[in-house]
Amino acid sequence: MSLVTTHVLDTAAGRPAAGIPVRLLQRDQRELAAGTTDEDGRIGDLGPDTLPPGVYRLVFDTADYLGPGAFFPEITVTFRIADSQAHHHVPVLLSPFSYSTYRGS
Q1: Which range is the signal sequence, renumbered to this chain (predicted)?
Q2: Which of 72, 81, 89 is nearest to 20 (CA)?
Q3: Which residues pair with 98 in a beta bridge?
Q4: Which of the two ends of the chain, N or C, has the fewest CB atoms closer than 10 A to its terminal CB?
Q5: Range of the domain at 84
């Protein structure tokens, strides 16, 4: 399993959000990995097994999933990795006009 994983839940529909492209970036915007959420809304293999401590970003391309009137066509979650050996799960709860995130397990 990669050091960073994610999943997206569509809270308005009450189901996982499948088909959302996600990119893992370093702070300088260099792309480290990319994937697309599966039928369960998850990406379990997003990037390397280890990353040096630092600030990273997950960029969720929600435009196609939410449609042409999407209020949030893209969501960027910036987070810090302090322990390069610990698993970092960064989920997003999504609805048409809001989103939230947290450090998962």
Answers
A1: none
A2: 72
A3: 95
A4: C
A5: 4-101
What is the rounded CA–CA span in Å between residue 24 and residue 64?
19
Radius of gyration (C-alpha) of the chain in whole angstroms: 13
> Scanning the structure block, which residue is given the tokens 């996982």?
16
- 3-class DSSP state for residue 97? coil
Q: Is the pLDDT of residue 42 over 90?
A: yes
Provide the token pair at 88.
């970092």
- Please give the helix or strand (H or E) that residue 45 lies within, else none: strand 42-46
Report the CATH number that the domain containing residue 85 is assigned in CATH: 2.60.40.180
What is the pTM assigned to this prediction? 0.95
> What average pLDDT score do residues 13-24 get?
98
Stretch 54-70: mean pLDDT, rounded?
96
pLDDT, residue 50, reads: 87
SS3 per residue for 7-40: EEEECCCCEECCCCEEEEEECCCCEEEEEECCCC
Task: Please tell me whether residue 68 adopts helix, strand or coil conformation.
Answer: coil
